Amino acid sequence: MKRYRYAVAITALLLASHALDLPAQVEGEHISTSQNHPVAAIQDTETAAQRDARMAWWREARFGMFIHWGLYSIPAGTWNGKQIPSIGEWIMNRASIPVADYKALASQFNPTAFSAHDIVALAKSAGMKYIVITAKHHDGFAMFDSKADPFNIVQATPFHRDPLHELAEECRKQGIKLGFYYSQDQDWTAPGGAAYKTGNHDLPSHHWDPAQDGDFASYLHTKAIPQLKELLTNYGDFPVVIWFDTPTIDMTPALAGEIVALLNQHPNLIWNNRLGGGYKGDTETPEQYIPAQGYPGRDWEACMTMNDTWGYKSYDTNFKSTETLLRNLIDIASKGGNYLLNIGPDSKGNVPSAEIERLQQVGKWLAVNGDAIYGTHATLFGSEAGSFSTTEKDEDGKPKFIPTWNWRSTTKDDTIYIELFTWPRGSFHLDKLPRTVTSAYLLADQSKKPLKITKSAGGIDISLPSQALDPIATVLVLKTK
Ligand code: FHN
Questions:
Q1: d(CA 281, CA 273)
Q2: Model pTM?
Q3: Ligand 1 pocket, mutate which of 69, 87, 306, 308 (most atoms under 8 A from CB)
Q4: Mean pLDDT for each 10-residue chunk of the chain (481 residues)?
Q5: Most-buried pick from 98, 282, 412, 463 (CB within 10 A)?
Q6: Cα 31 to middle of ligand 1, angstroms
Q7: Where does 144-209 have alpha helices with state H?
Q8: Closest residue (by CA) to atom 13 of ligand 1?
Q9: 132, 246, 283: which to mutate for ligand 1, most atoms within 8 A of CB?
């Protein structure tokens, strides 16, 4: 299993690319910390109260939809008759597709089945509160109307529509927030954009076509920054999030500072920790894993796929069960984080039915049990999530975290929620409680029938009915003072 290092020295965050064979990146020991940023980011200067206000909707949301959609959905994992290993959106890189050949895909891209209405409605029915879509991924193709570069969905395809604009309108109508993913550093079709190949971690860029050669700063000044300006100004009150990705050593503090100066003009914007140049951004972004204890004191968002790819691959049917997805959501919320769960529409704009089914099932659970997720804080307990092994080591040689799956807990000021995966016989026992419990009931019980509470020196016991109310997770509500 390969490791994938981000040039984000300030957080010293080493991300595991568990299910995915991702390229290694150069870790920037030269990357500066916030002390010597050439441009102070809003995060460096705002008060705690200002930050809380800026992050309020995002912390309330807890569940969002990631959308990876682009030209790579046409080959869908197969090039020249060969199935290309690894994630679908990396096919250009993994198959070393020449720039001209890849760009030629644009003339075939006509996703007439795309419906912004249906995608936003799907997110809503899943109980998701925001969407983050790939405005431009590493392949350099803009999924929006860009005057800055002609390699975009409006100018270069027969589709001639701007899905970001359509999504923005629908999100407004349906009450969902919209953010844009933008690959600011890697760009495999623009001269000077960074490009990485597996296996060589020593050099910053690995172009496989002379058309990729060029100067990174020029790429940034002529494409990335102008396109970021377009994204930040052409969509009204959106985006609320800019989701950067794969920073490399090319993104010096000075160059990143130019982007930060632009971001600072949008004081409500939230952006992640993947800009590069030593900027820590607003959110930690563990990918394809849930950190054992979250990131106490930091906002964080685990991004995950439903199968083993972000961009559509016609033959990847390795979908996680609804039970796994729901457990992930609850586990993440219990550690104070958000869950950004990916869909990968195909080249016609259809969302795979396996993804739709699972999202709707998660949404059904949230429709009943959403109070235990939205606007909640992390557990007051902690040991229920598992423990560090005294014998087994993880990939970093540190004690391995062994999760346990009996229950999780989330909290609000006057409530403790216990999400029960394993149904206890007779009663649920808690040894010690940081608050006084005044009443208890099951969230899925519309009558809120009070459950008997027995307090003793050994803790408290809540009597439960003989059967769980939900096959995956039944929520016990403890009202507290
Ligand atoms: O290389 C990308 C990958 O294609 C995908 O977009 C993920 C989503 O977080 N980010 C990068 C890998 O970390």
A1: 5
A2: 0.93
A3: 87
A4: 32 29 32 66 96 98 99 98 97 96 98 98 99 98 98 98 98 98 97 79 70 96 98 98 94 97 98 96 98 96 98 98 98 98 98 98 98 98 95 92 97 98 97 93 98 94 98 98 93
A5: 282
A6: 21
A7: 163-174
A8: 246
A9: 246
